[in-house]
Amino acid sequence: MTDTLTPVLSANWADERAWKIANYEHRGGYTALRTALAMTPDQIIGEVKDAGLRGRGGAGFPTGMKWSFVPQDNPNPKYLVVNADESEPGTCKDIPLMMASPHTLVEGVIISSYAIRAHHAFIYVRGEVLHVIRRLQQAVREAYSAGYLGKNILGTGYDLEIVVHAGAGAYICGEETALLDSLEGRRGQPRLRPPFPAVAGLYACPTVINNVESIASVPGIVGKGAGWFASMGTEKSKGHGIFSLSGHVARPGQYEAPMGITLRELIDLGGGMRNGHALKFFTPGGSSTQILTGDHLDMPLDFDSVMAAGSLLGTRALQIFDETTSVVRTTLRWIEFYKHESCGKCTPCREGNWWLVQMLKKFEAGQAEDGDIEKMLDVADNIGGKSFCALADGAVACVTSAVHQFRSEFEAGYRTPAWELFPYERSALFPVKTAGGHA
Amino acid sequence: MSGHEFQSFFPESGTVDMADTSTHITEATLVEMRVLADRYPQARSALLPMLHLVQSVDGRVSPRGIEACAEVLGITAAQVSGVATFYTMYKRRPAGEHHIGVCTTALCAVMGGDALLEHVSDSLGVHPGETTADGKFSLEAVECNAACDFAPVMMVNWEFMDNMDPDKADLLLDDLAHDREVHSTRGATITSWKEAERVLAGFPDGRADEGPAAAGASLAGLAIARERGWRAPEAPVRLKEEQ
Fold it and tell me: Per CATH, is B98-192 categorized as 3.40.50.720?
């Protein structure tokens, strides 16, 4: 029986100066790299496939399969790009990982690059996290000095360069094809697929794009074996995952557990809801995943169970809201985010999110009119599935699930402002002096 | 189409201020831009870092900065400004010595971020998007900064200020206003927005070893696991022997 929490990636976060290469090596760091370099690239891909690792950036696509899509008969260079643009509202796992133990990621990058036969890798990290970028830059420098990067790594003849690349503030660059355009020095706007990045990605060359946590999981798989990794988790969602608990719980934070842990267990570990309050709704994996309620406390948090419940596991970003929270207000604030972050390329997303904000503001102010719920759902229907990338679909999921779960609260928006139904100061963690409390 | 007045749906977007031609960009800046360009298989990939570098020198994306990027990369100034105006971290008007961000995406907003932004805005006497008259502070309502377990969150020069409230914000702003030493709650000593931009461009400032590995909420699960003796399974013995 596996323990309730299984710190693997987070195991060294409390170590003194965990970010230094010597301390990482002291815990066995970079031994998996030696193991990997003694294997063939195809053996590594096989091991990652056997482990059942599914992408930790939200979509859950099998990582080993993604790697095997890289056409090795293509004469162009191959590239590995790490998506470290963590920006999905509620998601906050990769940032502490890279801050505390950047070498876990760097070791994973080297092994993964070797597996796909890349000689150049990029870590595209969002720009708004200065100290994380410092730690990554230093870790890469340390890895060069130790002979783990550069020419003829550990005498094997394998060469690899890593560039740490800071973004400049655009959620859309977490979308893999927008990230590629951004990394090419352009506006971050998604590309139409096909061709998929595995065939024509960065500089139109075969490219693998993986989330930080996916790549950071690779050294463990190679070092301890696919069987070890697969001994954790559920049948179709294997391994360990970082679950990020935020919001109205007593102890928010990062909880690394086997896939399939339940929200009831996590909230319990998090000390329960904040004193005297009850769960109202939550996102299983960031704001782009349909909100769920207390009916789903015992649902295993794995890819298939959450999908069966009508939502998505996403990034395991569990944002918890208690009974003081207005669903209308929260939805408005999420849609304001999507409106702000829409890259503007596709008309349904660019215009549609703008319209959704206008409508939600009316609901919030208690000035919506009879039929506005249907109108809003109609606008949402004209956005979803009609744009290049998933940003639009995420926004739609947010609105439709809120209406589905809490329709009466939107109906109340025909008469009463949200801040009267749910005085905003009650949701805040500190005493709010201004009466009414809405900005 | 009478009765329909055109309205830009991106009122926050705009062009670079070409009227203000002041600059501190020198030949040395261009040399550094070429260093950045050389780090990539294709030079244009360095454009985002180069624009961070421009901000570290000029305190904004300046007309001269745009020309310099275009010169080094062999692309047009229009292509550079097209990129510069897409990303929110690039400022088209002079930013303050310190960039203050208050997260007001849904979760932080609900947990106090909205009230916090209002408070900070009142304290500084500027609206989000503006800089104080003395050039000390810029204020911005930022989107989710990936620290939701520390909500409500503020950022100073893109360093985390976790678990904030109005009183802590007042102390923070007062310390910064009086040039006292300030530390991020899990980062380094606060320097300035321009110095931060130089690190983002790819020129380290030697502060990577400051601050803890992790703090507070980041360690919540690990602390419980240690207390209860929970751990991941051991690696299979067979594999251990092989190694």
Answer: no
What is the distance between the alpha carbons of residues A303 and A333, in angstroms, rounded to a whole number?
26
**What would the CATH number be for the domain defined by B8-93?**
1.10.10.1590
B105 CA: distance to closest CA in chain A (Å): 6
Rounded Cα distance, A348 and A25, in Å: 50
pLDDT tens profile A159-214: 999 999 999 999 999 999 999 999 999 999 999 999 999 999 999 999 999 999 99
The mean pLDDT of A110-119, rounded to a whole number, is 98
| Cβ-proximal residues to A268 (8 Å cutoff; 6+ apart), any chain | none
Q: Report the gap between the CA of B38 and the closest CA in chain A (Å).
A: 11
Q: Is the peptide bond before A96 cis (omega within 30 degrees of 0)?
A: no
The CA distance from B97 to B195, in Å, is: 9
- Which tens digits make up the pLDDT trace of A378-430? 999 999 999 999 999 999 999 999 999 999 999 999 999 999 999 999 999 99
Q: Model pTM?
A: 0.96
Question: What pLDDT sits at residue B18?
Answer: 85
Q: Do the Cβ atoms of A167 and B65 come closer than 8 Å?
A: no
What residues in A contact B230, CB-CB < 8 Å? Answer: 3-7
Kindly list the domain boundaries of chain B, sorted by start residue: 8-93, 98-192
Three-state DSSP at A81 gives strand
Q: Which residue of A has its CA nearest to B189?
A: A131
CA gap B102, B154 in Å, rounded: 5
